[in-house]
Amino acid sequence: MKIVHITYSATGGAGIAAYRLHKSLINNEIKSSFISINLTTDFSGQQIEDPFLKYKKPSIVNRLFNKLKRVLLLTKKQRVVRSFTKIKPQLNFEIVSLPFSNYKLHKHPLVKEADIINLHWVSGIIDYPTFFKKCKKPIVWTLHDMNPIQGLFHYKNDKVENFNISNKLDLELEKIKKEAIKNIEKGVIVTPSKWLFNEVVTSIFFKNFKFKQIANSIPHHIFKPQNKNIFRKKYQLPIDKFVLLFATDSLNNKRKGLDILIESLKYLEDLPIVIVSVGKGKLELKTTLKSINVGSITTEVQMAEMYALSDVFVLPSREDNLPNVMLESFSCGKPVVGFNVGGISEHIHNFETGIIAEHINAKSLAKALRKYYNSKEKFNEVKIRNYFLKKFNESLQAEKYIKLYKSL
User: Pfam families, alphabetically (predicted)?
Assistant: First the structure.
């Protein structure tokens, strides 16, 4: 049995989760390959150069022919792209994408060789109309956000905020996606969280699909409890302070809620807090509390050190599925404070694995952080670690996926 995983990038939350699954399958003696724009591995587990995904400049004749077609007769794809280009400057969003791509992945050698196609975050790499029409192999689609069940946007809040401007285009894109997905003869949707599972089941996109909930996994041999003081000394942090850790790809990502965390700190200035942030951008506090930003982290080992030196991980996302950072924190035995959104609230159990803030605002977050500070002795690193091992270990995830693949 050969599985090929397809995701746009091997980096970012979705790409990392997809690659971890790929590696876990290999460790369980399943032949697995991986395709993305920045990393491709074959069925022997070797990283390879992938000329299939290299940009090929069209010839002068093809460029002239394409230009003539655009002048004389616009295709549906060209009309949609033109509509999107027109409204894009008016939109406010984290990320948007169209269901089109110049890559014809149904022709990729690894796709042709595979028995099962496991899609992940596929915007920009999968061309919905051609791929789902041409590829007749069973498809497992692991969802990492809501884009496959929406039109333009990847997150519900963005769709709501831009409704008046984008609704017409959204409806057209939804129709294109639904028509393309109808071509899938045998498919299963996998969601990491119950929240996303419920969103997908009640949507109108995957009526002929089966649905499974399988959580992501984290390499627990890397993300593990370690001596806090060793890494506080390494990063020149005071041993006796209360360290809050916040991590995201970009500190400017509104959905991740750094602005809420910053605002909440003014209610916590009486506590001996130091804020450590991970991610691109600047951390500008409106408080006298001390902070450091370590910038982007590219290795799992260094990220594990960040959890080790912290007292608590703060996850103030306004909207999220099942963030890797939450699972990594649990794997390191560290509690999480966050909001009652998405898959976050499914695993933050008050006074066991963390604290849930009652409302999505700064005062409520500050209240939850203070509640944790005043009761931190109640939290047990071993119990949090054991909760992780019971729910999110690699063997369990691989076992569930292998069973699913075999059923197809």
Answer: Glyco_trans_1_4 (PF13692)
Any idea what the CATH number is for the domain that residue 67 is in? 3.40.50
pLDDT for 151-188, tens place per residue? 999 999 999 999 999 999 999 999 999 999 999 999 99
Q: Quick one: 212 and 234 in the same domain?
A: no
Sheet-wide strand order for 336-339? 290-293, 273-280, 242-250, 312-315, 336-339, 354-357
255 in the same domain as 153:
no
Amino acid letter at 382? V
Whether the model clears a pTM of 0.90, i.e. scores above it, the answer is yes
Strand order in the sheet with 31-35: 40-41, 31-35, 2-6, 116-119, 139-142, 187-191, 210-213
401 in the same domain as 376: no
Rg (CA), the chain: 22
What number is the average pLDDT over the span 55-63?
56
Q: Can you give the residue range of the structural domain that contains 291?
A: 228-392
Considering its fold, how many domains does the chain have in total? 2
Q: What is the pLDDT of residues 128-138, one digit of tens each?
A: 999 999 999 99
